[in-house]
Every structure is written in C-alpha cells, then in structure tokens.
Write a structure and sequence with these properties.
single chain, alpha+beta, 2 domains, four-stranded antiparallel sheet, elongated
C-alpha cells in the first residue's frame, strides 16, 4: 500500500523534511492541522488569432564608399541583382523593411553573405 508523505516543519530551525503521515499522526500529545492544497486549472486561453498574411521582404541597398543609395524598396531578386556588380560582400549595406514598424533594419553579416551567395543565380 502506498504511503502518504507530508512536510514536517517542526524541526527547530534546522529545516523541514518529509515524513510519513502515520508517523506524524502517532506523535503523542500533538495536535496538528494539516493544510490541504487544491490545484486548479488556470483560465482557458482565448483562441489564437489567424496569423497575418506575410508580406514579401523589401530591401534597400546602399554603397558603403559613397553613401549613395543604389536601390530603394526592392524585392529580393532586384537586391541580389544590384549585388552582382559589387566587388565584395562588404562594399554595400543591405537593409530590410520591418513590416510592423515600417523601419529599415540593417542585415547582419551572415544575412549579407547569404544574399551574396545568390549572385549570378537570379
């Protein structure tokens, strides 16, 4: 038969420990009230809204040396096409538009290299 274990906190400052319920109830002259804990489920979550339709990425390409904008609001094919004429992955900065805020975010070096690999394939 399974034993029921309870947390005994009467340890005079040395910490609590687990003891069988029968041992706790057998203590002579000890009147104790055992606290019961009810576990309840949290409130039901509302149904997830439909995901928004993803917009295609829009890019902006800027020449590093001159600071001149080579292309603005381009699709990925046009952005990669502009990179074909560049000598190095570091010769241009590529930005992507963040749909929610409408701001331009500079791509990381790894993302630049990923676009760079597609040169000549488009």
């Amino acid at each position: 038969m399974a034993k029921t274990w309870v947390l005994d906190t009467e340890t005079k400052g040395t910490g609590a420990h687990m003891v069988p319920l029968e041992k706790l109830l057998r203590r002579a002259g000890t009147e104790r009230e055992l606290a019961t804990v009810e576990l309840r489920r949290g409130p039901e979550r509302a149904a997830e809204p439909e995901p928004e339709q993803l917009e295609p990425y829009r890019f902006r390409v800027v020449d590093v040396l001159s600071g001149r904008e080579l292309g603005h609001d381009l699709d990925v094919r046009a952005a990669v096409g502009l990179l074909e004429g560049r000598g190095s992955v570091l010769d241009s900065r590529v930005y992507v538009r963040v749909p929610r805020s409408g701001r331009w975010r500079l791509l990381t070096l790894a993302e630049h290299r990923l676009l760079w690999r597609y040169r000549g394939r488009v």
